[in-house]
Amino acid sequence: MPAWYEIIRVGKVPYGKGVFAIRTITAGETIGKVTGKVIDDPEYTSTYCIDLGDGVKSLEPRGPFRYLNHCCEPNAKLFLHETVYEDGTPGPTEVTVEALCTIEPEEEVRIDYAWDIVGAIPCLCGASQCRGWIVDPEQLPKLLKKQKKLTERDKAPQKSK
């Protein structure tokens, strides 16, 4: 696998930094391995942390993959790989970024954050199929129902005292 700096670069986007292809990246190609500090705390949160799938551990990624932005129509995805030491004991979970489709040079590499409903925020990705929220697609109906109830409550006439 080539080094990440032969495949991608970090560049400016209107809202901070993003990751961009240097060359054509083919569908299924591994773009790189995400490295960083593993945090063993279920309450830990940050702007960049990646849930390692056990509900307890998170990965606080280093650059360049720290700057992967969200898109409701992603062109890349994070994959978790369980590792095993030579003696057969479980090793640390590894995270890679892989292309879902062909990514052209200078195109931004973006993933679907698919956040839990608790952390959902409005989405401004601009994709034609944007969900309007950075949230797990399976949780979107529940979030929209919750938002509708809040809107209806806010529009209801207030009782005078």
From TrEMBL:
Boundaries of every SET domain copy: 3-114
Record flagged with keyword S-adenosyl-L-methionine: yes
Species for this entry: Planctopirus limnophila (strain ATCC 43296 / DSM 3776 / IFAM 1008 / Mu 290) (Planctomyces limnophilus)
Domain of life: Bacteria
Lineage: Bacteria, Pseudomonadati, Planctomycetota, Planctomycetia, Planctomycetales
Gene3D superfamilies: SET domain (2.170.270.10)
Keyword Electron transport carried by entry: no
Main location (coarse class): cytoplasm
The protein's name in its UniProt record: Nuclear protein SET
GO cellular component terms, semicolon-separated: chromosome
Keyword terms: Chromosome, Methyltransferase, S-adenosyl-L-methionine, Transferase
